[in-house]
Amino acid sequence: MATGVLKTRGDKVVGTDGKPVILRGAALGGWMNMENFITGYPGHESEHHASMIKVLGKEKHDFFFDKFYEYFFTEADAEFFASKGLNCLRLPMNYRHFEDDMNPRVLKNDGAGFKHVDRVVNLCAKHGIYTILDLHALPGGQNPDWHADNVTNYAAFWDHKDFQDRVCWLWRIIAARYKDNPWVAGYNPINEPADSEHWRLPAFYTRIEKEIRSIDPDHILWLDGNTFAMEWKHFDEHILPNSVYALHDYSMMGF
Fold it and tell me: The Glycoside hydrolase family domain covers which part of the protein (predicted)?
């Protein structure tokens, strides 16, 4: 069973009993943030959805993707994951499940985007698996690439305060929903940011930390480094409490 909401103590993650908890796991890539190199479709996720709506109509599109999200991860997957000795699953999410660009700061479909997140969080908890909630695609694009569902290849998130305000709004909603769940190992506010000015990312982390902590003072924040989670300029002035700073090491892939 979970030992209460996880926290950091020095360089360790601990339960409320003070004992270290070592998290071993993976990410559920290609699920609620579809990536073309994982799922095999061309282009970006939002383009894929738009094309399917045009061809199939919204009703059939919605039915297809509801089943896609359901069958992508089932209880059998949670059982298999746990059987390998793994105890943590990172859940990448696209903001478009929760908010529409043409209707910002309004929870989409009365929060229907949380249906499968809740389901997977609960399935994982049943099998002793923690989850980390990862906002993988942000309004405006936190980096220029496909995995941020960024069709413009311009990371506009860093140049427009309104995009940043919307992310703060969404994280307050997410934090309110999961603040009492001990099987949620924490929140990953931005996946692989790419701030070309370097100082804006740590400044935004200082802001988002306050926004999340106003709702949930307890869960760990998992904070990616800049330039696709690979560098740390200007971070020395913005070290935040109860946080883990994440490095994504792609050296084996040659970049």
Answer: 73-252
